[in-house]
Design a protein that fits this description.
This protein is 33% helix and 29% strand. By secondary structure, the protein is of the alpha+beta class. The protein has a single domain, classed as Gcn5-related N-acetyltransferase (GNAT) (Aminopeptidase, 3-Layer(aba) Sandwich), CATH 3.40.630.30. Strands 1, 2, 3, 4, 5, 6, 7 and 8 form an eight-stranded mixed beta sheet that branches. A hairpin with an 8-residue loop joins β3 and β4. The chain starts with a strand and ends with a strand.
Length: 163
């Protein structure tokens, strides 16, 4: 089965909404967002989301199996770009999909002059942390308060663009 990555455009708002909701249903504890809240947002919310950040969807055959958002990092993030909404369908985990996504990410970073990638992960999400470590991300020394869930702390992880 051929696996490909597609960069989404604002015309792909219904697709983004569908895949994002699928991810939230599949792995609700992995994200700061909640399915119920996200599912009620109008399509123009998703169109705007696609204008302010870059999204890729991973496709296997005719099935969307992965998602990743990349945006310019806020000044206090200690990174050039920030990764969010990283998700891979459970049936495709451990099959090299995350490596394909990082290759796409690295290419995007080169195009935009970004060198340091950052993301946040819940400290109890050991599977995701392990996957990120294998991809070359390094744990920050301290957890930080979550912006999306102020009642929780997240673990920042960073990766420098390979030279």
């Amino acid at each position: 089965m051929q696996i490909q990555l597609l960069k989404l455009t604002s015309a792909d708002a219904p697709r983004l909404r569908c895949v994002r909701l699928k991810a939230l249903l599949d792995s609700p504890a992995a994200f700061g967002a909640e399915y119920q809240i996200e599912s009620e947002k109008p399509i123009n919310y998703w169109e705007n989301y696609l204008r302010i950040s870059t999204w890729c969807v991973v496709v296997a055959g005719d099935k969307d199996i992965g998602l990743l958002e990349v945006s310019k990092a806020a000044d206090d993030r200690s990174a050039d770009c920030w990764l969010s909404s990283w998700w891979i369908d459970q049936d495709f985990r451990g099959q090299g999909v995350s490596k394909l996504m990082v290759d796409w990410l690295d290419q995007l970073c080169v195009e935009r002059g970004w060198h340091r990638q950052g993301l946040g992960v819940w400290p109890e999400n050991h599977v995701a942390i392990s996957a990120y470590l294998k991809l070359g991300f390094i744990k920050a020394p301290n957890e930080l308060p979550s912006r999306s869930r102020p009642d929780k702390m997240y673990l920042p992880m960073y990766r420098n663009l390979p030279l």
